[in-house]
Design goal:
By secondary structure, this protein is an alpha+beta fold. It has two domains: about 1-30; about 40-125, OB fold (Dihydrolipoamide Acetyltransferase, E2P), CATH 2.40.50.140. The chain is built from two helices and six strands, in the order αβββαβββ. Strand 1 (about 40-55) and strand 2 form a beta hairpin.
Length: about 130
């Protein structure tokens, strides 16, 4: 099937408009705030293997036998200290709650989970509730 130049131009414009609309939609969905309520949180427990700084002043926890990493957003700006966090948490059992979230940038899940609540030995060390 042969199209004239005018028809090809119209088809290309429609394709470009659709692509732009999809990109704008993805940006809007990706930029929505994460629901950090208790009702939207998932519980996970484990032994802390490693604590380190990641992202922008985030406190990152790696648990033994768990492929995900969990982070307290801007934790080092809000009272956490890396040396103290390593001493206090590495090797200890921790109970974490992370926000259930979905983004078109990672449609099948993300490895990094936003911590909404954390406790060590039933002592709350962080909470967004």
């Amino acid at each position: 099937m042969r199209y004239d130049t005018n028809t090809k131009t119209k088809i290309m414009k429609k394709v470009i408009y659709i692509i732009i609309a999809i990109i704008i939609g993805c940006v809007i969905i990706a930029s929505t705030a994460i629901d950090t309520s208790m009702e939207n949180s998932v519980k996970v427990s484990g032994k802390v293997k490693l604590v380190y700084e990641g992202g922008v002043k985030d406190v990152v926890f790696v648990l033994e036998n768990n492929k995900a990493v969990y982070y307290i957003n801007r934790g080092f700006e809000n009272g956490f200290n890396l040396a103290k966090a390593k001493k206090d948490f590495e090797g200890k059992k921790i109970k974490l709650f992370y926000a259930k979230s979905w983004t078109p940038l990672a449609p099948f899940g993300r490895r990094c989970k936003h911590i909404t609540h954390a406790a060590v030995n039933d002592s709350v060390i962080f909470s967004e509730w």
